[in-house]
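Lab notes, practical 5.
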Amino acid sequence: MNRANYWPYIISISILSTDGFAKGVAYLDTKPSVVNATNYDQNLNLSEYYVSEKLDGIRAIWTGEQLVTRSGRVINAPDWFIHSLPSIMVEGELWAGRQQFSKVQNTVLDLIPDNEAWQKIRFKLFDAPGHLGTFEQRYEFLKRYCQTVAMRHIQCVEQRTVSSHKELDDYLERITADNAEGLMLKLKHEVYHPGRNHSLVKVKTVQDMEGLVVGYKEGKGKYQGKMGALLIELSDGARFYVGSGFSDIERTNPPKIGTMITFKHNGWTVNGLPRFARFFRIRDPE
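Output from the prediction step:
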């Protein structure tokens, strides 16, 4: 292997136990540096992008030695799952199919791997930060790698092109009708550049965000004596209530204060708060 074709990524792999999270969970000393997606806008030149399905799983980074989440949490995968992964940094989605996030979360974040459950997980590779070059070149590397290892659980995310925003909208409508989460756009000729930038763009009919539970509002009417709404705080400090999307069980036993939740919304109000926010799920620490 010609090491001149690879970036000299240096990743600390010493781990520590973090009392603020689940007991026994290990984290890297520093989080992996990865690209974070921006939201789609119609000013993008789509001829410069590849398009792929947005997978509803857990994003994972293979450091070359360990499988971790984007927060640096070590994933306790079975040896057979990781032994054929390359010696350089690659990233992808741990995925079990559309609308199977809870199955992925319950499997991947277990401290003791369940071999039978892991048989249902695929590592869908979508980038190779450790490979020098543009995304187009990194994608070719991933395709060759997946063909060479020929492992059922290691797959390359399929990329395609679209010629217009209407074609993109039509594609989005087709796959979301079949329970897909959305689309991702990858800038073809961009080198890997960590941080939030337009080299990675997400396209969704409905947006989702994460927020911290900081309080409750008591229910009224049929919800008397139960939780009526959660008071949520965003990363910028903005606070608002989420009062829909809950089951009766969740209203009786609501997420605890300090819990991160994912909620869905349809754009923004004039005050800059999520419009029509509704509860989606508890987001376990990754």
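Observations recorded by the TA: The chain has two domains: 11-203, 207-282. Residues 125 and 156 are 5 Å apart (CA to CA).
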